[in-house]
Amino acid sequence: MAKKRVLVLGGGMSGLISAASLPASEFSVTVLEQGQHAGGQIRGWEDKDGDAMETGIHVLFPWYANLVALYERLGQPLPLVPTDGNFYILNGPLKKIVALETSPSLVGTLRGLLAYPMPVLDKLRFLRIIFDALTLTAKGAERYDHWTVSAYLASRKAGPELTAVLEILSVTIQALFGWEASAASFLKFTKHVFGSETQLEASCFLSQPTHRCMVQPLLDAIERNGGEVRLEEPIEKLVLEGDRIVEVKTSQAGYRDFDVVISALPAYVFRKLLPGELQPQFPALCRFQSAYVITLQMHYDRLVLDDGHCYISNRDEVIFDAIIDKTHHWDELQGQGSVLQVLIDNAREYRDAPDQVILDRVNRDLKTFFPKVGEGQLQKYHLQRHAQVFTETRPNYFSGVFRETETFLSNLLVAGDWTSTPYHYGMESAVVAGLRAANLLLKREGLPEQEILDVKFPRFTEMLARWRCG
Ligand SMILES: Cc1cc2nc3c(=O)[nH]c(=O)nc-3n(C[C@H](O)[C@H](O)[C@H](O)COP(=O)(O)OP(=O)(O)OC[C@H]3O[C@@H](n4cnc5c(N)ncnc54)[C@H](O)[C@@H]3O)c2cc1C
Asked: Is the shortest distance between the CB of 298 and ligand 1 below 6 Å?
């Protein structure tokens, strides 16, 4: 029987995983990617000195069971470096680092919360918010969907200290300030981070750059399957006839030779490629916008951060949202100076700022919290402006949004971290979405599907959630 010809749009994690999961015996797969490097948001490369460059900090959260299992199946387990699980918060006004101790168990997390410097009333309100999150169902999430994080926190009477701590999550996870971010998305994240039965002992970093330990194994698997990844081929248009896509136009060529298309493009890109008359049929996609993120990789001649924690801030008098010293994780950097990865997740206000202005502000704030930075010599830096990076979750993200893998077009499947996965952002979601699309095709061919593990929550929280949401 002739092989099924599959065209995958977008060579990010989700698209590469779909492609890597389709065996050569039955499928012939081509991935079209606009960038110079595959990997999308986890892409990386070597600079002219051979130093690894990448886009972000890349934390694996404790519920990332499918991500870990995938690389085990590929025979290349991820080189995980567990964190101590705590949140280290750079408090701008206090000019102090405050630790919020958490642990994989709910009891441990509550103990950390009690020790956190915050008014007692706020601690009680925090418990209420954790309760809201733990007892959230998919249907329940829709109740909070029209709210912003700030409006939700105000409805729970959170004081300024508590609001400041919690709004950090909306910036680092949703790349939006609290007054813009979806409360449902915030609560979903809180449920997963505080309430899931974890696969990993704590959040983890990787001891190698993502392009080596995450992207390359997928490219190798695609090659073994006889598939192909075509870089620097931006897709410009999808041509339709009836209920089928008949042509995918890139800047280089027109592709007509396929049976199925898997779109693993970000939501805001996917909509623009559809013919005008179809766009109203994907109405909710019109609401999606992309975040504007700046990342800065700074190389110092000596160690300027004493540990490998991820420090986060609420942007109160601090320009960046998160910072880490990769020297403490990456094997290849052992014994060298520091390599800092700095993230400005919600960076629209710096869109027009020159690189030097951003660098100076980052340096000023670094010296406030990490005085040793002042003793180090900055040898080089690489500033990336990601104008089109990931899909923001503003209010109304969930209600009525089309995010299913199968679409009403007979030969189009949709993947990507923004689609219907247990949590709608991050590497785990990209994995689940990629596997789901591949599984549909495997099933149609009567082939065994790849296992997809569900996120597990303790039975008592599930019972409470059912009771609360009827
Ligand atoms: C700075 C940063 C830090 C992050 N930190 C974490 C973290 O700590 N933990 C975590 O779990 N997740 C993190 N993420 C998110 C995580 O990396 C993503 O959720 C995941 O990689 C998304 O994969 P994807 O395949 O769904 O989408 P993408 O990686 O966005 O892939 C989409 C692909 O489509 C391509 N594309 C777009 N338009 C076109 C076009 N017209 N033609 C052809 N190709 C096109 C893009 O170039 C891209 O390669 C971070 C992301 C960023 C940017």
From this structure: no
Decide whether any atom of ligand 1 lies within 6 Å of the 117 Cβ. no
User: How far, in Å, from the CA of 416 to the mean position of ligand 1?
Assistant: 8
Class of the CATH domain delimited by 87-200? mainly alpha
Q: List pLDDT tens digits, range 346-396.
A: 999 999 999 999 999 999 999 999 999 999 999 999 999 998 888 888 888
Q: Whose CA is nearest to atom 10 of ligand 1?
A: 426
Q: Does domain 4-44+211-287+398-444 have CATH number 3.40.50.10140?
A: no
For 292-386, the fitting CATH number among 1.20.1250.20, 3.40.630.40, 3.90.830.10, 3.90.660.20 is 3.90.660.20
Distance (Å) from CA 13 to ligand 1 centroid: 7
Q: Is 163 helix (H, G, I), strand (E, B) or coil?
A: helix
- The Cα–Cα gap between 357 and 353 comes to 6
Q: What 3-state class would DSSP assign to 31?
A: strand
pTM score, whole prediction: 0.95
- Ligand 1, residue 234: give the atom nearest the CA: 42
Residue 419 Cα distances to 60, 228, 393, 463, angstroms: 19, 24, 12, 26
pLDDT of residue 263: 95
Q: Ligand 1 pocket check: which of 9, 45, 390, 428 to mutate, most ligand atoms within 8 Å of Cβ?
A: 390
